[in-house]
Amino acid sequence: MTSDDGARPQRTDRRFTGDPTRARLLEAALDSFSTKGFHGTSTRMIAARAGLSPAAVYVHHRTKEEILFQISRDGHQEALDVVLAAIDSEATPPGRLRAIVRDFATWHARRHTLARVVQYEMAALTPEHADLIAALRRHTHNAVRGVVLAGIERGDFTVRDPESTTVALLSLGIDVARWYRADGAWTPQRVGEDYAELALRLVGHSPGASRNQDDEASLAR
Q1: Residue 106 has pLDDT above 90, yes or no
Q2: Same domain flag for 47 and 77
Q3: What CATH number corresponds to the domain at position 71?
Q4: 22 and 52 in one domain?
Q5: CA 198, CA 176: separation in Å to the nearest integer?
Q6: CATH code at position 28
Q7: HEC profile for the chain?
Q8: What is the spatial distance between Cα 100 and Cα 170, in angstroms, rounded to a whole number?
Q9: Which UniProt keywords apply (predicted)?
Q10: CA 109, CA 189: separation in Å to the nearest integer?
Q11: Does 148 share its domain with 188?
């Protein structure tokens, strides 16, 4: 089985670990949700795509919505992990922001099928499940907002509203899942690099200003 961009699945992909039958059901459901939408997909369709009987679906999941929730939770957790790893990989707000947007956009391109489903089928979740997904989304939002606030405090970023800026930065990556196609002209890495540069421009980052601040901090020590 391959990932969206034709590469072998990454080991961190939660859907390819654990119970093989359950993984097949999740993969079949993801394929169907991505092409027919949640409401256009039946449990019988999912079972047929997985090569199983309809009854086998209910051994692992009580409802079709529960399958969507599992896919959505795994996808949002993957995206959050990408953001947190990007933050840990750099020391300064500009470096962290660049890494976040680069890796977040790259993930949405590489995993565009999964990302489309988890981002655009949320309305089908139950209120309880929607609240759990919203908590993951807030964690992602707050992590990025923290980087934006740190950049404003240091004078690296010149934006007036950190909240709307955070929404705009995350939207750059999320929207990639809507339009990206594996057979298009851009690779996931190219999308990530280009969007990272756009993000730094969006926050008004001046590389020279941050270097001067770092130099001043070093002299003060």
Answers
A1: yes
A2: no
A3: 1.10.357.10
A4: yes
A5: 14
A6: 1.10.10.60
A7: CCCCCCCCCCCCCHHHCCCHHHHHHHHHHHHHHHHHCCCCCCHHHHHHHHCCCHHHHHHHCCCHHHHHHHHHHHHHHHHHHHHHHHHHCCCCHHHHHHHHHHHHHHHHHHCHHHHHHHHHCHHHCCHHHHHHHHHHHHHHHHHHHHHHHHHHHHCCCCCCCHHHHHHHHHHHHHHHHHHCCCCCCCCHHHHHHHHHHHHHHHCCCCHHHHHHHHHHHHHHC
A8: 9
A9: DNA-binding
A10: 8
A11: yes
For the segment 203-208, the average pLDDT, to the nearest whole number, is 78
- Residue 216 above 50 pLDDT? no
Amino acid 48: pLDDT = 84
Residue 83 sits in the same domain as residue 19: no
pTM: 0.81
Q: How many domains does the chain have?
A: 2
Question: Which residue segment(s) compose the domain that 109 sits in?
Answer: 64-220
**For the segment 125-181, what is each residue's pLDDT rounded down to a tens digit?**
999 999 999 999 999 999 999 999 999 999 999 999 999 999 999 999 999 999 999
Show Cβ contacts of residue 61 under 8 Å, excluding neighbours closer than 6 positions.
25, 67, 70
Q: Is residue 127 in some structural domain? A: yes
CA dihedral 37, 167, 197, 12 (to 10 degrees): -50
Query: Do residues 117 and 206 both lie within one domain?
Result: yes
* Among 44-58, 126-140, 190-204, the least confident range: 44-58
- CA-to-CA dists, residue 77 to 5, 54, 74, 209, angstroms: 20, 28, 5, 35
